[in-house]
């Protein structure tokens, strides 16, 4: 019996190639039920369910019930905070207001994990003529308040690093969670972002910082600091020269027989494994294959009776 639960990010079906023809959320959860998924990770962006659309408790109760009727649970919320930069502005109140709105949305839906990021790209400091130390301080202070607010509702905050956002060097990733220093603030470890950041140094400003062990070494350095996991392959490329290409399993270079056992030793408090097919052109068609791949990984490494020490 597997000790993990599988979900997939709903944003894969309304971002990028699906922007003009998104798959309706009800169809998404119907397909996930048919494929035997345990849950869905909600991208809180229109046209999928979001705080503005589901703006009353009654609407949210109905949405939660609808998902449950398909045998699914919510593994997390990717909050729509991209219109509210933190680093280049002295006042974070707009971001904090939007975060609070998403926090209430998550709470009403029974979601216990909310994703955040640095919002601004890695070249923000050159473009804005801004001291990186000031941007760092602004992020730290914002995340400290956010983590405390979320903790009061039993919702953990997870920061997703990636090539497309500021502070994407391995040492910065480790240091940021340490500097926030709140038990309710952890890292969202996405395998393809980890590879591009740690093994390739993608979009790192200045001198590149590359770890000899790549994603696996970064994962080890983050042991005890990870709060949520996204799984997908990497083909060493960037999507539109911005963020990591989320290549389907088997179409990239990642060694999941090495990564999965280390993930199981990471101390992550969640047993969700979330597939992330963001921006993949035929995400809908490869969803079943992605689940089959992770079913195999779960059976191999994360079943009752197989200890983490044995999963090597």
Write the layout of secondary structure elements.
Layout: E1 5-8, H1 25-35, E2 39-43, H2 57-69, E3 73-78, H3 93-109, E4 113-116, H4 124-127, H5 132-152, E5 156-160, H6 170-180, E6 185-190, H7 191-200, H8 214-221, E7 226-231, E8 238-239, E9 243-244, H9 256-264, E10 272-275, H10 283-301
Parallel strand pairs: 1-10, 2-3, 3-4, 4-5, 5-6, 6-7, 7-10
Antiparallel strand pairs: 8-9
Helix pairs in contact: 3-5, 7-8, 8-9
The largest sheet is: 8 strands, parallel
Mean pLDDT: 96
CATH homologous superfamily name? Answer: Divalent-metal-dependent TIM barrel enzymes
Oligomer: single chain
Helix/strand/pairing class, anyone? alpha/beta
| Helix content estimate | 25-40%
Number of helices: 10
State the strand order across the main sheet.
Answer: 1-10-7-6-5-4-3-2
CATH class equals Alpha Beta
Work out the count of structural domains.
1
How far apart are the termini?
Answer: 19 Å
What CATH calls the topology is: TIM Barrel
pLDDT < 50 stretches: 305-312
Number of extended strands = 10
Reported CATH architecture = Alpha-Beta Barrel
Name the helix and strand elements from N-terminus to C-terminus, one letter apiece.
EHEHEHEHHEHEHHEEEHEH
How much of the sequence is in beta strands? 5-15%
Q: How much is the radius of gyration in Å?
A: 18 Å
Broad shape: globular
């Amino acid at each position: 019996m597997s000790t993990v639960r599988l979900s997939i990010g709903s944003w894969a079906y309304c971002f990028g190639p699906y922007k003009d023809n998104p798959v309706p959320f009800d169809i998404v959860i119907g397909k996930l039920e048919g494929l035997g998924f345990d849950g869905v990770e909600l991208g809180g962006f229109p046209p999928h369910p979001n705080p503005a659309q589901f703006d009353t408790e009654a609407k949210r109760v109905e949405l939660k019930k609808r998902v449950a009727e398909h045998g699914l649970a919510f593994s997390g919320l990717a909050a729509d905070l991209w219109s509210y930069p933190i680093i280049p502005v002295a006042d974070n109140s707009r971001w904090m207001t939007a975060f609070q709105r998403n926090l209430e949305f998550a709470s009403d839906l029974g979601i216990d994990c909310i994703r955040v990021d640095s919002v601004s790209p890695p070249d923000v400091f050159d473009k804005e003529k801004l001291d990186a130390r000031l941007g760092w301080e602004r992020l730290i202070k914002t995340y400290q308040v956010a983590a405390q607010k979320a903790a009061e509702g039993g919702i953990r905050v997870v920061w997703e690093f990636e090539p497309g956002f500021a502070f994407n060097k391995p040492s910065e990733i480790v240091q940021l969670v340490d500097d926030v220093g709140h038990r309710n603030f952890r890292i969202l470890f996405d395998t393809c972002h980890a590879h591009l950041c740690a093994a390739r140094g993608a979009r790192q400003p200045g001198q590149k910082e590359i770890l000899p062990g790549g994603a696996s070494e970064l994962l080890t350095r983050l042991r005890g600091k990870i709060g949520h996991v996204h799984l997908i392959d990497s083909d060493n490329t960037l999507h539109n020269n911005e963020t990591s290409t989320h290549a389907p399993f088997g179409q990239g270079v990642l060694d999941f027989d090495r990564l999965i056992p280390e993930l199981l030793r990471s101390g992550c408090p969640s047993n969700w494994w979330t597939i992330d097919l963001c921006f993949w052109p035929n995400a809908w068609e490869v969803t079943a294959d992605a689940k089959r791949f992770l079913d195999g990984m779960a059976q191999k490494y994360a079943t009752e009776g197989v200890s983490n020490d044995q999963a090597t």
